[in-house]
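Data deposition worksheet. Section B asks for the primary sequence of the deposited chain exactly as it was used as input, without tags or linkers unless they were present during the calculation. Section C holds the resulting structure in token form. Section D is free text for depositor observations; keep each observation to a single sentence. Incomplete worksheets are returned to the depositor.
Section A, Depositor: J.P.
Section B:
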Amino acid sequence: MTSNYLVAVTGDKGGVGKSTVTALYAEWLLYHKNIVQIIDADPNQSTQTWIDKCAEFGRTISQKDAHITIVDTAGTSGSSLIKYIRNADLILVPFKPHIADLEVIVGWYLSVKESLQERVAFIPNMLSNTKEQRTGINELKTTVSEEGRGQVLTGIGERKAVYPPLLNGSDKNFFATKLNEATKLETQKLFNTITTLIK
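Section C:
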């Protein structure tokens, strides 16, 4: 793993799972013996609360001498978002594949500089395999293809009993717990792909 690598989990839309993706990615990295630092730049502090809860269970998540730093940004534009995405080596953008959400994130994507678009990786989140969602993802893929920069990754399913409880904190790494096969496969596929993006 490259040292001092900065990943921003961002996008100009709230409530799409940025904190969940941040926590999942951190757990993946920790499970694979990486040292991680997490910066919670979202005023809601969901990720920091998760870090604190894990600490109460005796588990350290975030450390300063890290291989990789993950920044969970605010759900709307602001100075912290601009600062972190400008300096990010990789920009992860979770989104719900619904029309209203897609309009916001596509508008955001088209508004940023080409050099930033190249670093963007969209993550479809809360997938339920409906025709609307499939159509939305395909439209986003078309936009990204037309721009010739960035990419759309595999997504994370709507698993209310699996992913949201992650932010309650635990004494065990998420990937060291007993996961069903579907959860294992989708997370492995997603995070293995993200790993290949880190150069």
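Section D:
Helices lie at 18-31, 46-56, 79-87, 99-111, 114-117, 131-147, 181-197.
The longest strand covers residues 120-127.
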